[in-house]
Amino acid sequence: MRRWDAIVVVGLLTAAFAVPARAQSPVAAGGPACGKPEFESVVESAAASLRDLNSRNAPGFQDKLRLLRERQKWSADDFMAKAATYVQDERIAAYDQRANDLLTQVNTMGEAGAASTSPDCKLLGDLRATMKALIDTQIEKWAYMFAKIERGLVN
């Protein structure tokens, strides 16, 4: 899960820094706050949430995988093959595809922000919604993987 976290953060930061510097101070002009600092804040918050989500879930999931190995009396070779079914299946692939699609949207928003000549508050709202969807997707993925391993532990 660490690799995924790094990929997400890179994608998020790419979008944040693609917002032009000229859009930094809409408040000074009397408009709503939707410049580069607000975009960066959305990205930083989402990245922190994703890191927190992974740091809370990964150790417990790994513990459950080890417990499953012990209960099933799998050898090290068996473990690598059999544990894969708990972290790779069609539904998990769908979650990963959804996350990749959302990151593509983030990059597209970053490009749109870079091309904009003025602060784009709608784009900021869209970015917030996309980041929330990304976090929600990861929450659902973790819940699914935990439920799946719990079923394996019961059997």
Task: Provide structural commentary.
By secondary structure, the chain is mostly helical. The protein has one domain (2-154). 79% of the residues lie in helices and 0% in strands. It has five helices and no strands. The longest helix is centred in the middle third of the chain and has 37 residues, at 36-72. The protein is elongated and about 60 Å long.
Give structural attributes.
disordered N terminus, mainly alpha, elongated, single chain, 155 residues
Task: Report a brief summary of the structure.
The protein is an all-alpha fold and 155 residues long. Helix content is 79%, strand content 0%. The longest helix is centred in the middle third of the chain and has 37 residues, at 36-72.
User: How many domains in all?
Assistant: 1
Instruction: Report, as a whole number of angstroms, the end-to-end distance.
Output: 26 Å
Counting DSSP E segments of at least 2 residues, the number of strands comes to: 0
Report the biggest beta sheet as strand number plus sense, adding barrel if it closes. Answer: none
* Whole-number mean pLDDT: 80
Broad shape:
elongated
Structural class: mainly alpha
β-strand amount:
under 5%
Order of helices and strands: HHHHH
**In DSSP terms, counting alpha (H) and pi (I) runs of 4 or more, how many helices?**
5
Low-confidence stretches: 1-29
